[in-house]
Amino acid sequence: MPVFSGTDLTCLRGDRLVFTGLDFRVESGGALLLLGPNGSGKSSLLRVMAGLLRPFRGRLAWDDAASEDDDQHGGRIHYVGHLDAVKPVLTALENLSFWASLGGAADPAGAAMAALERLGVPHIAGVPGRYLSAGQKRRLTLARVLAAPAPLWLLDEPTVALDRAAVRLLEGILAEHRAGGGMVALSTHADIALPGAAELHLDHFAPATGDDVDLDSDANGDGEAAA
Amino acid sequence: MPVFSGTDLTCLRGDRLVFTGLDFRVESGGALLLLGPNGSGKSSLLRVMAGLLRPFRGRLAWDDAASEDDDQHGGRIHYVGHLDAVKPVLTALENLSFWASLGGAADPAGAAMAALERLGVPHIAGVPGRYLSAGQKRRLTLARVLAAPAPLWLLDEPTVALDRAAVRLLEGILAEHRAGGGMVALSTHADIALPGAAELHLDHFAPATGDDVDLDSDANGDGEAAA
Amino acid sequence: MKGFLRLVARDLRLALRQGSDATIAVMFFVLCVVLFPFGVGPEANILARIAAGVIWVAALLASLLSLERLFLTDYEDGSLELLALSRIPMEAVVLAKTLAHWLVTGVPLIVAAPILALLLNMEAAGFGVLVLALAIGTPALSLIGSIGAALTLGARRGGVLLSLLILPLYIPVLIFGAGAIDAALNALSPRPHLLLLAGLLAAALPLAPLAGAAALRQALE
Amino acid sequence: MKGFLRLVARDLRLALRQGSDATIAVMFFVLCVVLFPFGVGPEANILARIAAGVIWVAALLASLLSLERLFLTDYEDGSLELLALSRIPMEAVVLAKTLAHWLVTGVPLIVAAPILALLLNMEAAGFGVLVLALAIGTPALSLIGSIGAALTLGARRGGVLLSLLILPLYIPVLIFGAGAIDAALNALSPRPHLLLLAGLLAAALPLAPLAGAAALRQALE
Amino acid sequence: MAEFFAMGGYAWYVWPSYGIAAAVLIGLLVASVRGLRGQETTLKALEGARPRRRPRANTGNGTGDAAGRPAAGVEG
Amino acid sequence: MPKTVGSPISSASRPSGSSRLDRTVMHRFANPARFLRLSAAILPWSAGATVVLLIVGLYLSLFGSPPDYQQGDTVRIMYIHVPAAWMSLFVYTNMAIAAAVGLVWKHPLADLFAKAAAPVGAGFTAVCLITGSLWGAPMWGTWWVWDARLTSVLILFFLYLGYMALVNAFDSPERGIKAGNVLLLVGIVNVPIIKFSVDWWNTLHQPSSVIRMGGPTIDSTMLWPLLVMALAFTTYFVSVVLLRVKAEILARRIQTLRLSEAQG
Ligand code: HEM
Ligand SMILES: Nc1ncnc2c1ncn2[C@@H]1O[C@H](COP(=O)(O)OP(=O)(O)OP(=O)(O)O)[C@@H](O)[C@H]1O
Ligand SMILES: Nc1ncnc2c1ncn2[C@@H]1O[C@H](COP(=O)(O)OP(=O)(O)OP(=O)(O)O)[C@@H](O)[C@H]1O
Ligand SMILES: [Mg+2]
Ligand SMILES: [Mg+2]
């Protein structure tokens, strides 16, 4: 049973502390819901979890082995960020099959088609990416997590641009994945049913305002710089 | 009392019929809520209303005078799409004042500052665009509609990236605008209170499947598209 | 008119705020000229013979490359849509952005040209005409190039290709520009060449904004 | 290895689907060379004298121009992030994309070069060496350029900036490439030049993917 | 003295050399010092503004402002 | 403050929490406080040394040394030209070393150093080029020749400019510095290649007899002003770079403040 955890994570972006002292733990079948206002660091945390962003302090562990500098980590996750990675000149199916094949699917085209069907958009399979509406693109992007297997899904505001029917579909897909032992971490401002998920409020890990001011003032006062 | 209306509108995008036979009418103080599943044509209709997209058939009228080919139309509307038009090197205030001045505000800087205050973000006035978080950028974009006067607001999913407090603010602003005789047309998948708004379900105007196959078959074999 | 000036001012401010941006076109110009001695060899007399042509070709290319982005950022971040909906006519938008762009990138080219002429051992007799010809020619290049920049936005696929189709339109500017200098170097009057160059500019001034505006409208559909 | 080939195949398909992209580099190459008779004047002996240099400079510029977008679209639409998370090492990603790019843009240059040499009245003795030198040199240009393309991701004014960074690094390729042809035209052996060119390619083959991958990783932070 | 300034007939080459070198070095120095001064004053201004801003930010929080943090508190 | 409720740091005790934070963040800047103290101590000395050395150097080069028997008084250009040439190479090498340190050990002061030194190095290179040209006009009868050495200095100048353009081309300064570091390392690998290829290219076409750098063996009356001026340039470089690094550190602080302002 895999466990993915982070301890004492601190994230610094553009010389500004976004969150600090953050711990989390997701077990097989578990889910983590990232909440918090704009700019509290949900996207940053997901990028840290994916290994795209190096935490300034703290460590990530997969089954108690450090997952940073671990070449395998990328293969264990599916990351869906704000960008859709959809090529306008390739059809939806071609787009999806490519990622399925890189993700190690045995039959990329078949897996891709099945994923599109599961997301309720089999009819866009032959449509070039540039003709897709915002929501259709989003569904195509989400289909990527189904087209190749990976235990940990990292989803950044997956419900953006989805209509209600699609949100229900997504909830079903997430439940299924967890029932099969998968893990999920997702951020959202909207309502999404994720039964039994642990909630992580990013704003609780914001550096205190006092810290901020302290940093500023002593750096300035006697000329020690830069937070 | 101005009236903005469209009759028998048909929209064709990339050889595909998106909606057809659509009528709408917004009066002074009125609001139009565009609903419908992904790909049903909400964004397309808003671009048609703004005059950015030419309808394939049908006409738009402002006070019974055709508004296409009308140079004045741009001056009567504020359009907020998915793109934010925020320059990273200009401060929030500079960004906003520029649009305010083009929109004909008497005192661009003053109007811009007031708009930022109304949206609850006066403290970002001096901050360059590149440092703004997603939500702050969205608020800055929405502030544009307040910084210069225009009777008709066209908002495409304005609540995306906003947290709940900001959605409440926006509802208040919309109510005020309508109370002053303004008109609003907006699309959304999320909940937003727009009392007395006429709802327009775009999926009701989707071309019948039969039509679709006719149009589609020559382009695409039998893989009919259209959500 | 007020809107026009505001737009010019904004574009200038954007260019200057971004610091190095303004210098990069001129750097490309310089580098492009400097490549020739490596390709052609360092003999001074050969270099002097081709100096005028090389400098003009480099100016063409620098102008072409820097114009590529003339409307691009405004298009990508949605500003262009808003400008299209504003009270300023699209033709004035094209003209304002082209003017700002020329001030920021064209003028430095003119300043740098004599130094490059020196590097290529051009005779001193050609320097004055070189500067004059560039001063008339580069605005024409910017105007013609703005059409290409607008077309690039419109046609997603053939975009860059279309902008290459602008290069043939640059050829008259090149011929008269280089011709003026050659005339001066051969102790002939560069006047007719310069007049023709000015004629090209006068023609481009109304036509390019018209064509550019049409292309932009298409891009926004 | 399978991933590497899949990536090459995808990039080739994208390039061919986009049709014009593949032809842009070669179009620019041709136009750039064709501009010279207009700038320098039509004397056959002058043109023949500078032909090798002009063709090489044009090849450099064409390579630069097309390299600008090597990683750009993948970066902007998030594909690059996903590639970084995939099982393929980043160095292999750089190499695969550069290879696909060279197949699509470099090879047409090599084919077009003799025709342009004919246009510029180059002597027939240089043709074979010209093709050979380009065949060794253009992959080196693509590799070196890929570093610049990776470095300028996310920068303002990517295109012209790229040329500023990379043109100085291209100079050795230019010197030996043009030198080989000049040697052949002057009845000397082009062999040492070609060997040095091959040496540059051999050095770039491991180093460029390393530096490029380092730059890409930073771009994704 | 005039002879010294004539530099053996090479005045037009020697003095510009010294002049340009001086101009470049002094220019760099002045630019650097001014840059530093500029940063120092900006920093002073920013830090001067902070104490004023902080109370404002707090009242903002009270009324459920803006930057969104309080809203998320409600959410949680 | 409502914000701090539930924050693990602030719930402990704010002073200690903030000082802990303080230290972690400071570490990233290798304690600029120490650097700033050090630089404040060095700066008066280096600035003073620059002034003294320049006075002595200028006196020696303008009055204290004889005209060359061949080149006449133009030889006085040498006392600017040669030290500037040395500095142009010296500064670039230092920047490349700093880039390696910045990339490998992630030492932030090394990053700032390269960025701060670049304009100074470019300035020295420009001085070398311009004074060389001014020397060439009377000596060779032309302002510029595509000689191997001249050409490689020109390319070095472009490498400087490319680095500066790259560093400033990003919205986020750290990104610019990191990209610049990679470029500096690629550039330093390339410098010997350029040098070698340019040498070879040039000798193919142009016999080196026309342009000989060496000239007469250097007499001690010429060597002294040369060395003093070179030393003066070095101390000048140290002083200006210290100023510029400090300005960079302050710029970071300003950015941080702006950001926290953005956060509200
Ligand atoms: C733009 C033109 C020139 C450039 C870029 C240039 C560049 C250089 C460089 C890089 C060095 C330092 C070499 C080293 O120490 O490794 C140097 C040294 C020197 N240059 Fe120049 N130079 C130029 C013109 C001239 C001219 C016209 C003369 C005199 C006729 C000249 C005379 C010298 C001398 C005497 C040295 C000292 C040589 C030594 O250290 O042995 N340079 N130059
Ligand atoms: N590339 C970047 N460089 C510097 N700072 C950044 C960058 N991206 C984000 N930030 C800053 O980091 C903080 C956290 O950003 P992040 O995107 O993680 O927030 P979020 O919780 O996902 O917000 P949202 O709800 O808007 O998506 C913000 O203050 C933001 O301004
Ligand atoms: N530029 C385009 N070219 C061709 N077809 C397009 C283009 N943009 C959208 N379409 C198609 O037009 C239809 C309507 O798209 P539109 O963006 O208006 O939908 P929407 O209602 O806004 O959907 P969403 O809720 O997903 O934003 C979709 O089927 C889409 O595939
Ligand atoms: Mg986010
Ligand atoms: Mg939409």
What report would you give on this structure?
- The complex is a heterohexamer, with two copies of chain A (227 residues), two copies of chain C (221 residues), one copy of chain E (76 residues) and one copy of chain F (264 residues).
- In chain A, 34% of the residues lie in helices and 24% in strands.
- Chain A has 227 residues and is α/β, with parallel strands linked by helices.
- In chain A, the strands form two sheets. Chain A has a five-stranded parallel beta sheet, with helices on both faces. A four-stranded antiparallel beta sheet of chain A has the order 2-1-4-5, covered by helices on one side.
- The radius of gyration of chain A is 19 Å and the shape is globular.
- Residues 210-227 of chain A have low confidence and may be disordered.
- With 221 residues, chain C is mainly α.
- The model of chain C has no long low-confidence stretch (mean pLDDT 88).
- Chain E has 76 residues and is mainly α.
- Chain E has a domain at 2-49.
- Helices cover 84% and strands 0% of the residues of chain E.
- Chain E has helices at 2-6, 11-62, 69-75.
- The longest helix of chain E is centred in the middle third of the chain and has 52 residues, at 11-62.
- Chain E is rod-shaped and about 60 Å long.
- The model of chain E is unreliable at 52-76 (pLDDT under 50).
- With 264 residues, chain F is mainly α.
- Helix content of chain F is 79%, strand content 0%.
- Chain F starts with 7 loop residues before the first helix and ends with a helix.
- Classes of the chains: A alpha/beta (227), C mainly alpha (221), E mainly alpha (76), F mainly alpha (264).
- Chains in contact: A-B, A-D, A-E, A-F, B-C, B-E, B-F, C-D, C-F, D-F, E-F.
- Chain C binds chain D through residues 18, 20-21, 24-25, 27-28, 31-32, 35-36, 38-41, 46, 49-50, 52-54, 56-57, 60-62, 65-66, 68-69, 157-161, 164, 167-168, 170-171, 174-175, 178, 182, and chain D through 18-21, 23-24, 27-28, 31-32, 35-36, 38-41, 46, 49-50, 52-54, 56-57, 60-61, 65, 156-157, 159-161, 163-164, 167-168, 170-171, 174-175, 178, 182.
- The structure holds protoporphyrin IX containing FE, adenosine-5'-triphosphate (2 copies) and magnesium ion (2 copies).
- Protoporphyrin IX containing FE binds at residues 78, 81-82, 85-86, 128-129, 132-133, 135-136, 139, 149-150, 153, 213-215 of chain F.
- Residues 78, 81-82, 85-86, 128-129, 132-133, 135-136, 139, 149-150, 153, 213-215 of chain F line the site of protoporphyrin IX containing FE.
